[in-house]
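Appendix B. Chain record.
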Amino acid sequence: MLKRYLLAPGPTQVPPEVLLAMARPILHHRAPEFAALFAEVREDLKWLFQTRNDVLTLVSTGTGAMEGAVSNFLSPGDKALYVNGGKFGERWGKLCKTFGVNATEVKVEWGEAVDPQTVADALKKDPAIKAVYAQASETSTGVAHDVRALAEIVRSREDTILVVDAITALGVFDLRADEWGLDVLVAGSQKALMLPPGLAFVSVSEKAWRLAEKAKNAAFYFNFKKEREAQQKNQTAYTAGVSLLLGLQEALKMLKAEGLGNVFARHARLAHAMREGMKAAGLSLFPKQSPSDALTVVSAPSGVDGQAVYKNLREQYGITAAGGQDHLKGKIFRISHMGYVDTFDVIQAIAATEMVLTGLGHPVKLGAGVGKAEELLLAK
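Structure tokens predicted for this chain:
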């Protein structure tokens, strides 16, 4: 028998309470019971996003919300700026190209965080830029970008918005949409929100809505104005993901019971223990700076295939993590600690990594990483 553990950076583990909520009899999406459910969820999402503005819910993965965050605010020929420090920063560029937006790339070495001054310089050079696209947490590299600093740069520009992919950041570390001026904040259900894939979320500032009024790109399904109109009446423009929303209602209750500050502190504590445990085991972390608390990205030791580590974690010990993408394939492996995770998820991930590396012939002092993690997790 091989017991399975899900420690990939999405989808993540789903709590039993959420699974049971999704197993309840399905509601019709136009019934009064649904409107009551959706009203509660909408208010709780505002709490999570730390905003007074509407948070739209879409039946989609996070990429659908990213697409809408381009098509709803920009017209063909408009100018944008995007931070490319990994596979998901790269995606902003591809989406801009799809909708005819002239996007300037801010290239960042994988494993490094963007220098906000680079963005400031680019905006000063071209005042016609209408949107800046960035990641709060770049999942492919494990780096957190300083979106608060980017917001300080963008917020004074009346005709420029900041759009943040927070898919592996929301519910992991502090993101204050209104206070910081994060105009558009995108998230997905299958990360720290502890749900299966299938829902995406977008908070939109009034500044961004003003830009949306001028946008000329076509949008039918991902039409944010149409969704806003429907969702302000506690309905959705199209068929809602009812069972997922029942699960979301339960997940948000769990997060509220824990408290937002405690949620952030838990993720920070687990991330610190994972990183220090991996280093104590003799491994090097891939991010050169500003590691995200959503996941730990480890450089494969010399002579060891990172894909073999990822594969053996799954096949030998039942732990699903993730490998590297693009040119990092075989060079890194990634382990999540976001969402429904606790002390022993970290300990078992480090223990299994030590055992896999030993099996691959890499010298590891068994228990060294585990001991360090235990020491840190014990000292709450």
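Further analysis of this model is presented in Appendix C.
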